[in-house]
Amino acid sequence: MALPDEELGISYLIVGAGVFGVSTAFHLKRSKPWATVVLVDRYLYPNPSAASFDLNKIIRADYHDIFYMKLALQAMEAWNSDPLYKPFYHETGILFAENVGKGAVFLDNYRRLGQETQAESLDVDEVRQRFPCFQHANWTGVTRAYYNPRSGWGEAVPALGALLQAAIDIGVVYEPTTVAKVCLETAALTGQLLPRCVGIETAEGRVLRADHVILCTGAATAKLLADSAPNDPTLHVGDRLVAAAALSCKVRVDPEKWPLYRDAPVFANLMSHTSGEAIPLTPEGGFIKVNHELSFTHMIYHSASNTHFSSPPDSVKHSCWAEDVPQVLKEEAMKVLRGTYGPYMEDFQPESYRMCWDVVTKNQGWIISPHDACENLYVAAGGSFHAWKFLPILGEYVVAMLDGTLDEESVNRWSWYSIADSAGACESYAPRRDLKDILQTEKVKARV
């Protein structure tokens, strides 16, 4: 579908076709069929550098923050029953190995919500008996394991692509173009207290004007706002959104070994000797994916604004599936493999690696909010490495934010100036190092 005539205008312009952007576009158009909804992304779908461009993603309702557990249970209903999402959901179960009582908190949260669950606490011998492929995992320090058979994983690119097509089918306009900046009218010009966002300017210099501009730009948010208003720090993200990456590794399994791994659950070994997750065998291709939890930033100096912030590197090899990543990161991926499968590692051949760039907040919650320093500008971001599973429902909450109907707790948690005081929703993925440090370590090792 072509862009609307300029005279007709754009009601809602969404920048970024990841989980926040696509879900928002779909729910906006479905709830407001008369509105003109335009979704802009720098690539024709899929964007190979987006966080959502992945082999698969974990889908679970097991959260120690009961707020996100309630939301995840709502999303799980869609994954289990909605024909738009159900074909892409694989209910393999999920297993957590840890020693800080997360499983007990999960079970207590289900009880507090009055939610029936098949989840249970297991000792290590029970796990080994049920799941032979984890028999030789690194169980050092593990006191109990938590197992929930009603969790699993989703096919990342196909699921998001199906929702994007559904959005286009009901009238959303998808426009592949690079956004250079958001267009602002100063407060002096508008006669208001705040500047006003009136649209976006593309890299080719084309201006798309809109009544509402919604940034679903993930790890690119800090740079986009700094480029748009370099001399106005009130518009910048500050420390509320930090771009970070975690390493994923795609591993091929020999076909004759598939029976050993086919019925395995997702395994999250949270102990420091492993610090990662393994997502089980894909039905097609015979891949296992592992994630290493220790994420990292990429701090840059932005000369126009004279500020420092984290932003993904320009190099494709630092955001897309590739073989060329620092050896330090490859070794960390192998650590996850060793901690998950032990001596069975000889069955695996790592094929490619990926630095998955997302944007995290201080408590790994999200921002779904008007930008408090600019009229007509809104932000839906802060996935913090756990938002993908909420694909079916994220847009509902963005629409509620736009309509001013969000409940008070959600407003407080997701505001641009969040006043929520909550525990981390996904604290194991909080960044604790920088890519430059990793590359420097690589250079030092090379000289030894």
Automatic annotation (TrEMBL):
UniProt keyword annotation of Oxidoreductase present: yes
Which Pfam families has this protein been placed in? DAO (PF01266)
Tell me a Gene Ontology molecular-function term this record carries: saccharopine oxidase activity
> What is its cofactor?
FAD
The answer to whether the entry has keyword Transmembrane helix is no
Keyword list (alphabetical) reads: FAD, Flavoprotein, Oxidoreductase
- FAD dependent oxidoreductase domain ranges (all copies): 12-400
Question: Which InterPro entries does the record cross-reference, listed alphabetically?
Answer: FAD-dep_OxRdtase, FAD/NAD-bd_sf, MTOX
Which superkingdom? Eukaryota
* Family under the similarity heading: Belongs to the MSOX/MTOX family.
Protein name (database record): Sarcosine oxidase
Q: Which organism is it from?
A: Microthyrium microscopicum
